[in-house]
Amino acid sequence: MSKSFDSYLEISPPGVTKCVFLPEILKLYFIKKTKKKSLNTLFIGDSDNDVPCAKVVDESWTFKSSPENLKSLSKGIIADENGKGVRKFLQQFL
User: How many domains does the chain have?
Assistant: First the structure.
């Protein structure tokens, strides 16, 4: 059980997080990996439960409202444009 925000409660088996499956997804799509980072990968996260994923991808992005520990791992901040910030970011990025 974990909390990503004060109002969110996440329940999963012990030791299971979204980052547990990230290496398998990367293998599935033949994404190359160094010892610590997955190359050519982009991750967008907004809370403490996203920190493990931010540590293993090539590039991590977050939001102004995100916790400082996630911001410190991120390449930059995505603007929150009335809920359309991620879409606009991806349109520019891709």
Answer: 1
**CATH number of the domain encompassing residue 25:** 3.40.50.1000
Q: Give pTM, 2 decimals.
A: 0.77
Q: Please give the Cα distance from 16 to 53 (Å, whole number).
A: 13
Residue range of the domain that includes 42: 2-93
DSSP string, 11-44: --STT--HHHHHHHHHHHTT--B-SS-EEEEEEE
Each residue's pLDDT expressed in tens, for the chain with a length of 94 residues: 566 566 777 777 887 777 888 878 878 887 777 766 767 788 999 988 899 899 988 899 999 989 999 999 999 999 887 788 899 999 987 7
